Amino acid sequence: MVKFAIFLKAEMDNIDKLVFNEELIFIKYKCTNCGTESETFAGLDPDEEIDIKGSRGVCNFQAKCKCCSRSFNISFLEKFDYIQENNNKFTKFMTFECRGVEIIEYDPRAGFIAYCQKTPYELDLSEGDWCDYDEDTSLSLEIFGVSSKIEKI
């Protein structure tokens, strides 16, 4: 088993923190047996527990390689808030335990909440940028330049 982390980087204006709200996590992956990469993003649900075949354990994503037919699975371990102090720096955002597979790409989409002075804003980062206006503070809220990288940990 190998652990991977998704590191997030974003430029945030007037946002205190960005939180992932545990909806589907969209990833691309690569089979560690034959090296075949997924062609499309797959959705991993951190709340769904799947029994691992031939084991007493559970995971959050399980599939078979289209090329070599080897089974693999991924377990969601932990999420971290992206806070203002880390603005525009790659910061660990999520961690996973992988068996027979490597996570190679992450696509931030829906499932995020941005906080401006404790006021939550549900947002979608599928276009990479987001903006809004906070009437209570008269501040323009922005998140832009969103990018991610994957590393073994």
TrEMBL record:
Its name, as the record gives it, is DUF866-domain-containing protein
> What keywords are annotated for this sequence in UniProt?
Metal-binding, Zinc
Q: Which family does it belong to?
A: Belongs to the UPF0587 family.
Per the record, the domain of life is Eukaryota
InterPro entries for this protein: CXXC_Zn-binding_euk
Q: Which Pfam families match?
A: CXXC_Zn-b_euk
